[in-house]
Amino acid sequence: MESLEAFRQRARAWLADNLPRLPPDAEPWNAMRVAPGDADRARTLQKTLFDAGFAGLCFPEEYGGRGLPREYQAVFTEESRPYEMPLLFNTPTLTIIAPTILDMGTEEQKRRHLPAMIRGDELWVQFMSEPSGGSDLAGVITSAAFDGANYVLNGSKIWSSYASFSDYAICLARTDWDAVKHRGLTMFMMKIHQPGITVNRIRQSDGNVEFCQEFFDDLAVPPEHVIGKVNDGWTVAQRLLFHERSATGGSSPYASGTAGRRREDIDDLVRLARAAGRADDPHIRDLLAEVHVLQTVQGQTAERVVAGIAAEALPATAGALLRLFTGLNGLRRNDIAIEIANTDAVAWDARTSDGDAGKAYVFRQAWCLGGGSTEMQRNIISERVLGMPREPAADRGIPFKDVRRNAPIK
Q1: Residue numbers annotated as active site
Q2: How many Å apart are CA 277 and CA 271, to the nearest integer?
Q3: What is the largest CA-CA distance in the chain?
Q4: pTM (2 decimals)?
Q5: So what's the pLDDT on residue 317?
């Protein structure tokens, strides 16, 4: 195997010759401001990485990757910071869905889709949350009935990032209403743009339309698109959630490039303080120091949890520690940003400011929702990491058809 230092030097030279360098004043990557044209650009860049052997570094070679240890991906990510990267492919395509298929999919599914993801041919999304489900993922009511040839899906999913311009989705649906809540679920993969699926974009308060809602009307999905076993979709969902916590916590070995982490750099807040004329304010400097400390702790926590899980000193569910810390850290960061920006976060002159601190503050609660709410992470930590007793649940042990629930939204 090529030494890590030799790999670094080769990657550094290739990046300088083949990828566009970001200008010094480039806007940080913002996953909430992605347009269809950005997706096309990401596909091109991902293909460029693949052709040069720098895509899918930690995925097995037989599925289009390079089979390298995670240290090599970390080095490439570090060297790629000054360059434009196909960050759109990181989450959820490469860090959540691809490893879930790698762990739970059939050999045919892995050979068909993993190389296509790593090449940049397929952009994937998750059809998981539902309008009436809240954080209760196991309470899905989208139905999938087998008609002898296909599974026929009816229902709705929501908060699906990038679904309007993505290619495939992974979808959790209910296949057995007589089973208890967690036992009658099945995970499917499906093409997004086909008869039986309607995709509507959701306009948010800042005009962004990244989120989507999907409606299934007698959508036919063949049996070979089942991931894992029929009625055992919760096992697949648990594995997906493990990878999601790793991705949102910054510890996934499959992320290539700096992903959303550039937005967390303290340099952005330093620039904000200088623009507001407050860089010498002792209180503001204390806040900047707090951000630096929290980012350092987050990075070290990620290393410790990843090492603990790998050594089996911690259970896989310990990834919830990272998800919880990341959510609370993001929340605090946005609070600090709006305090630094002061009145410029409330009203601003478009010629001198874009009001990002204020916009981010309005959206700050998303840090504690996406990838599993912080409340759910606390439950996981208490019950599955610390071994505390489970809290009471009125729907435990009874057929899901008898569980009281909200009426489906039509």
Answers
A1: 244
A2: 10
A3: 71
A4: 0.84
A5: 87
